[in-house]
Amino acid sequence: MRIIKTIIARILCVALATLLAAATLRAQQHSVKRLDGSRIMPAEIDQTVAHWMTVARVTGVGIAIFNGGKIAFLKTYGERDTEKHLSLTPDSIMTCASLSKSAFAVLVMELVRRGVIALDKPVYEYLPKPLPEYDNYADLAGDERYKLLTMRMLLDHTTGLPNLRRFMPDKKLKFYYPPGSRFTYSGEGILLGQMVVETVTGKPLNDLMHEYIYNRLGMTRTSMVWEPRFEDDFANGYDEDGKSLGPERRDKASAAGGMQSTLHDYARLVQAVLSRKIPPKKERAMMLSPQIRINLKHEFPSLDDETTTENDSIRLSYGLGWGLYWTPYGEAFFKEGHDEGWRHYVVCFIQARTGILIMTNSSNGEDLYSGLLENLIRDTFTPLEWEGYKTTQEVDSGHP
Predict the structure, then answer these.
(1) What is the mean predicted confidence (pLDDT) over 165-187?
(2) Distance CA 328, CA 204 (A)
(3) CB-side neighbour CA atoms (13 Å) of 239
């Protein structure tokens, strides 16, 4: 009898253990794995996002979290229109701001693979006339340094050109540093890259992006210009005081910041890069390889000369269209997007195949980053201060 009872007890223990294991597996299937191996449930994600939206006073935010190179969690919060009380959706059109630059870099690497563009060929050689003879580049007349510019320099921000000339006191385009000598974040360099690509291919940027990226990845609600079909679901941008700035109905493509997309679509692009789907292996490796080490104290102002050794330990660098740094979990690539009413951020860890995409329709969106990175994926490594963003403690201390 004692033997039978022992057998039954063992059977019950095994059954219970099996049930618990099954329950744990089901729970994990609905949870999200973080960098440190811990997991977070959707309800906790919701609570965390709600908290930081309140603290940062953000109108709407979309979150996509990547596990194993796949989208493990994707959800939007808040409103796309506060007057009409319309909820932000995963398919709401938002201006991507400088996330456009990274998408453009993916396009260029596709053209590199096909032999259409060479990274180290001087870009002026692709043009039918000298660069200063184009109206937009007349300011460079008399400065032969434009002949040194390559597509690699345009994508890794070592052109020596300003971010955007309209921000300069004289509104002129000129070299502030010798091309290739140092990191100087430059939207002007990306716009020149756009002109070169359009000239070489004979196609407008929007057509190229659809052909090589959007159509391949199923990015059905993305364009470099505003399209009438976007009117059914778009987000207004909101300033720091919560005032609506409306949507950006751009009619001219800008590789530097004009891409119109959604959380759903841009997450597809990030997933494709993280999972090695696009660009192909060789070109992706080049794109995410350090081109220039960065020892500047801050990313902006882009012409600031103050240096530091603070980021030496993470080997802060820039690749082609993406920022790079190293952590105990391996290499990470990142990109920020900043425009009036739009603040976005993406960071992914290559070896861990984990990452997060944050898209907001609020000028206060940057105050979300630290809290979401730390709590949702346990990322305490991203150099947010170098990019000019507040730490979690700074955000919290400024909250009433």
Answers:
(1) 97
(2) 42
(3) 4
